[in-house]
Structures are given as C-alpha cells and as structure tokens.
Amino acid sequence: xxxxxxxxxxxxxxxxxxxxxxxxxxxxxxxxxxxxxxxxxxxxxxxxxxxxxxxxxxxxxxxxxxxxxxxxxxxxxxxxxxxxxxxxxxxxxxxxxxxxxxxxxxxxxxxxxxxxxxxxxxxxxxxxxxxxxxxxxxxxxxxxxxxxxxxxxxxxxxxxxxxxxxxxxxxxxxxxxxxxxxxxxxxxxxxxxxxxxxxxxxxxxxxxxxxxxxxxxxxx
Length: 220
Prior knowledge:
By secondary structure, the chain is of the alpha/beta class.
C-alpha cells in the first residue's frame, strides 16, 4: 500500500477494508479515501464483511464523477467467513499471538483439507460479491487482482510474511474484465449512521482501535 500510492491520485476513489491505511495513507492523496474498516468492521467475525465493501463501491460509482475506483476487499484473507470457528488473529497481548491458522497447520493442529477448504470457501464468498459489483457499476475496464498469495509449506514458509520472496506469496492473479454496465439489479444498503454525502469525513466512527482490528486479521 505504501509503495503503490506514492503520488496524489486526484482522479481516484480508494475504498479499502485494510486498516493499514490508517498508518500509511492520507485522505489528501485521493479524490476520496473511504476507509470501510473504520465503520464496517464486524467484531463478532473479526473482519470486514465483503458486502459492506460492495455496497460502498456501488454507491461511489453511482454518485461520484471520478475516473478510477480502487476497491480493496479483505477476503480471502482469514478469518474465513465460511469457517469462523477457525479464527485467525489472537490478541497481541496474548503470548500465543503467532498461533494463526497457518501456524496451527504447521504444528499439525489443523489439517490441510480443513485449512484449504476454509480458504477456498472464503475466496468464493468474495468472488460472489465481485460479481454483484461488476454487474452494478459503469466501467470501461475492470481488473481483478490481489495484494499477495499465501505459502503453505513452500520453502518452509506459511501465510504471507513480508520477507517471503517465493512464488506462492508473490505471484498473484490479474484478470481483466471488459466494459461493464450498471444493471441496477442490486440496491446497496445505506447504514443509518452514514450521512447522505459520500465524503468519508461525514461517516460515524466506532471506538475500536486500529491495532485491535489488525490483530483480529492476524497482523501484529
């Protein structure tokens, strides 16, 4: 995120579910910086549900006159919406904080089949939301990609540690979809806590700290 948005993008609306934006980005870098994680974080799930991101993206697309939307979903990052009992991050104040699902698999506490099924199911959930999105926005072109992959034992690495310079982590999909039309087949949910204007400064905020949300997603 820090290395990608190095210059001001006055024609770009960035809709992100990643709490790292609080640490490395400024709203002045974009036409609109909509930090969905600030108001869309589900404490019970420990993540940002993808439908919240879809709703905001469609609202921006229909109400904003900017050249580009960058839409950053959290899934398929754990915790898995299909298998929430697996969890992911543990409180940074807990001495077992590194016991993520990837570490649990490494230690033999979680089978490959269970882990992979949870990950795949999580991916399918967010791809269903992407389908809703592309059927309800006007765009000359849509590109779907990811910020990273995950290692599952390659070179002794698991998950996506930042120093894992291996294909399983660094190689990502790049799918270019042609032009899309807004079929108006979906009506995004308008939360009562949000004002009528698009500007993120108008949104209500909760009191959950950034660090707690990063911890729930497995970052420390």
